[in-house]
Amino acid sequence: MKVLIRTDASIEIGSGHVMRCLTIADALRARGCRVVFMMEELPGNLIGLAQLRDFEVVHDFQSADLCIIDHYGIDEQWEQSIRPFVNKIVVIDDLADRQHDCDLLLDQNTVPDFEVRYDALVSRHCVKLLGSTYLIMREEFVRERQQMRERDGTVERLLIFMGGTDPTNETLKVLRALQKVNVTFAHIDVVVGGGNPNRIEIEKICLHEDFHFHCQIDYMASLMAQADFAIGAGGSATWERCYVGLPSSSTIVAENQIVATETAASLWAVWNIGWHEEVTVKTYLQLLKTLSNRQKELQEMSVNGLKLTGSPEGPNLWIEKIMELI
C-alpha cells in the first residue's frame, strides 16, 4: 500500500504538522505501508528530517492508495482534484474553518463543541475522529506515560520549548528572564528545532549560563518526563505535556492555538499566559518567581492533564481506523 502525505513546515508555518505526520508515517510503515511525503522547499522546512527518517520526499503529486493531508492551505478544491488518483483521503485538521472532501477527518484537539463542529464541513459518509481520545502520540510518549512518576509540585527541573521554529522569539525572552530571576533551578533544559532562526544565539546563552541546550531532538518525551515544569507554546506540544503529566505554561504564538489553549486552561490543565505580543520578559520573570509557591496548583495541573489526555481504549486509536480505510 502506498501512502502519500501532503504537509509542510517552515519558519512561518512551524513544525507541528510535519512532526505529527512523521508519527503517523512511522505507524503506517510499521504496518507494511510505503510512505512518501509531498513537501515544499520553504525556509525552515523539515524535508531533511523526513529523509533522515528514511522517508522519500517529492515535490509533485503522485497517485497513491491513500493520501493524508495535514495543511491549513488545502481544502475541498484540491482534495476533489486528486480524487481520481487516490482511493481514500484522510485530513488532519484543527481549525474547522473550511470544507473538506475526505473519507476520514482527524482532529485531536479538545475544544468547545468539538464533537459537532465538522458536521457541516464534511460529507455524511466521512468518519470523524475527534478529541483527545485520538491524540497523535509518538511511541516515546506512550512509553513514558506507562512508567510515569507521581509529581509532588516542586520545581527543580525546568524545560523550555517554544515550538520547532519559535517564530515570535519566545525562547530568548525566557532566557533573559532566567538571567534576571533570583530563583535557582537544579537543571534547565532548553529545546529548539532545527528551523529556529535564533538557535545559534540561544545555544551561546545556554553555554554561558550552564543551561542544557538541545536542537532537533528525538527524546522530547524523556525530557518532559524528567521535568517538573515546562514553559511552552500552544499547539500539539500542549497535549504532549499533558500526556505525561507535566505542568506547564502556554504562550499563544499563532491564531490557530487560541481556542485549544484557552480550553486547556479552562480545564486547569495548563496556564495560559496570553498572546505572544503581550507576553514580555517581565511576564516570564513573574512566572518563574511564583513557581515555588504554587506546589498544590502544579500537582492538580498534572492530574488534570493526565485525565484530559487519557483514553480507556489505549493510545493512538487513529491508526486502526486509518488502516481500515485501506
Explain the overall architecture:
With 326 residues, the protein is of the alpha/beta class. It folds into two domains: 2-135 and 312-325, Rossmann fold; 140-309, Rossmann fold. 35% of the residues lie in helices and 20% in strands. It has twelve helices and 13 strands. Strands 3-2-1-4-5-6-7 form a seven-stranded parallel beta sheet. Strands 10-9-8-11-12-13 form a six-stranded parallel beta sheet, with helices on both faces. Helix 4 (139-146) packs parallel to helix 7 (220-226), helix 5 packs parallel to helix 6 and helix 8 packs across helix 11 (295-309).
Please render the helix and strand layout as text:
Layout: E1 2-7, H1 16-30, E2 34-38, H2 47-52, E3 56-58, E4 64-70, H3 76-82, E5 86-92, E6 104-107, E7 127-130, H4 139-146, E8 157-161, H5 170-180, E9 187-192, H6 199-209, E10 212-215, H7 220-226, E11 229-233, H8 236-243, E12 248-252, H9 258-266, E13 271-275, H10 281-290, H11 295-309, H12 318-325
Parallel strand pairs: 1-2, 1-4, 2-3, 4-5, 5-6, 6-7, 8-9, 8-11, 9-10, 11-12, 12-13
Mind telling me the CATH class of the largest domain? Alpha Beta
| CATH architecture designation of the largest domain | 3-Layer(aba) Sandwich
Overall helicity: 25-40%
What summary fits the major beta sheet? 7 strands, parallel
Give me some keywords for this one.
326 residues; alpha/beta; Rossmann fold; 2 domains; 7-stranded parallel sheet; 6-stranded parallel sheet; 12 helices
Overview in brief:
This protein has helices at residues 16-30, 47-52, 76-82, 139-146, 170-180, 199-209, 220-226, 236-243, 258-266, 281-290, 295-309, 318-325; strands at residues 2-7, 34-38, 56-58, 64-70, 86-92, 104-107, 127-130, 157-161, 187-192, 212-215, 229-233, 248-252, 271-275. The protein is an alpha/beta fold and 326 residues long. The mean pLDDT is 96.
